[in-house]
Amino acid sequence: MHSKAGHAISFASRRALCKTPSLSYSTRLLPFTRGNHTQPQPQQPPQSTNSRSDSTTHFGFRTVPTEEKESLVKGVFSSVASSYDVMNDAMSFGVHRLWKDEYVGTILNPGRRGPVKCIDVAGGTGDIALRILDHAREKYADRDTSVCVVDLNPDMLREGETRFKKTMYHNTSQVSFRVANAQELPPNEFPDNTFDLYTIAFGIRNCTDVPAVLREARRVLKPGGTFACLEFGKVGNPLFAQVYESYSFSIIPLMGHILAGDRASYQYLVESIRRFPSQPDFARMISEAGFATGEMREGKGGAWRDMWGGIASVHMGVKM
Amino acid sequence: MAAVLRRATVSVLRRSTPHVRCISSTPSLLRDASQNDGPIALNWFENAFLVGGSAIASILDPRRADMIAVLGETTAGPALPRLRDRMLESPEGRRVLRDRPLINTQTVDMEKLRTLPEGTFGHTYVTWLDRCGVTPDTRDRVMYITDPELAYVMQRYRECHDFYHAICGLPVDVFSELAIKYFEFANMGLPVSALSAAFGPLRLTAKKRERLFKEFVPWALRCGSSSKSLITVYWEERWETNTEELKKELGIWDPPPVRWSKLLTEAAREAARRAQREAAAPGSTSGPSV
Questions:
Q1: Do A26 and B146 lie within an 8 Å CB cutoff?
Q2: Is A45 a domain residue?
Q3: Residue B146: which of A10, A30, A251 has the nearest Cβ?
Q4: How buried is A238 (Cβ within 10 angstroms: 0-12 exposed, 13-18 middle, 19+ buried)?
Q5: Membrane spanning segments where (chain A) (predicted)?
Q6: What is the pLDDT of residues A240-296, one digit of tens each?
Q7: Is residue A50 part of a domain?
Q8: ipTM higher than 0.85?
């Protein structure tokens, strides 16, 4: 293709190219380069609830067709299922256990007023379900509280079943596992007005249609039943928020790559946390779905309670 | 001229973006999306974190090839541009940099290589693949190097690793991998091969370690430093070259004998079986059966 002279010329010009500062070189040729810690501004796709074929929604910072989000989320959780608990411990330095202990032990306090029929949605590996049953048993000698663990992803449920096989609740009527979509709980398996407590921990931000989840929650709860949601929130303190943001975007995807060989799923995780509405907005959504919440503020008597400055928060509502 | 070259490079890079399967089990939609997302620039802290994390993960589980790959990318430093310059100094290396060929079962016609006469490099390579039971498809794509040319050099380095095994005639156990790491370090000088060479032997038994350092390391260091820089070799042009002649040209000689877990006759038997099938049904397409 090139003559000998042509070779020499192309060699010289390539060397000239190489001498160009690498930053401008790479950004000229690779517009897709992104910083690990400086994420692109999240796009603002329309959050649509009707099923037009061209509607899109967010998947982390990506925009994806609405119908695809569910299978993408399912895929993420199939991928992380076997290392889910290990990764939770690694990413939060074990703090997620404190959050869940406070959520179940102090805030939910199941068994205080008699046995509770619970549904634990997006309950996957059974963290919350086990805590509910243990708390009722240890504090109130209650062996009639039951939890139905529901998850979209069968791999996560399998992890949960394995965990429960090591406990005394295996093969009892106190725990059951069902594959179902939180947005559309099948009415024959989950009839109206069945449960006393509906809990969803670190799951609702992965759902495509949050209002639909809230509507289903209201449907399956008995009147006067409690809706409880533990989810990541927005940190109020600006300095702490900066530290939290740097940690999330710098360290967590890398940790995912090292520990689980899966960078993309953990990138999705931190992006989905950013995407979720703030505590006041979510509290308003709960209230609009027909739940009686506390006042629109944080703290005891408020609609939500922050943990660790707002990294996680608990939203509660009672079905009217 | 520079603009034409740049445009050609960009188009070759975009065309040859590989869909190499990652070792991780990331679901395909997410994986394809992240593969097409482009490289990720790290600041010094993230780089250091990855160096530490991938080093520990590699030592704890040497089968985590994705971690060794990440270690290579994050510790490349000034050695990678030096390697690229070495490629630029030879006409063959320049051709490789221009064409940016990739090595996986889609770009390399394995069936054609199997039909090559015995003793040619292509046949040696495919026989080695079959004998060890490995495939070139398990190489991760380079993720953490932003300069596209350096990223390609790293990708090429990773993908040619199997050729060094094949041409030296070494299997894929820990012992031989370490010998090849010493060889690579002497030949190409990337820090990751030095790190693997330094810490890898900790996983061997004392007896094997002694044998490694007494017989194989002297061979690897002498052979690696005196032979031609293997990163500049356009292996895809050499499929039909006789392996012994190729070794003489590159300045490589055989290592001390090593035990293979699978016998050589297995591969020959497979080849005979395949030839028999083809003779019985000429014109029918048979997929790889090994």
A1: yes
A2: no
A3: A30
A4: exposed
A5: none
A6: 999 999 888 999 999 989 988 888 888 888 988 998 999 999 999 999 999 999 899
A7: no
A8: no
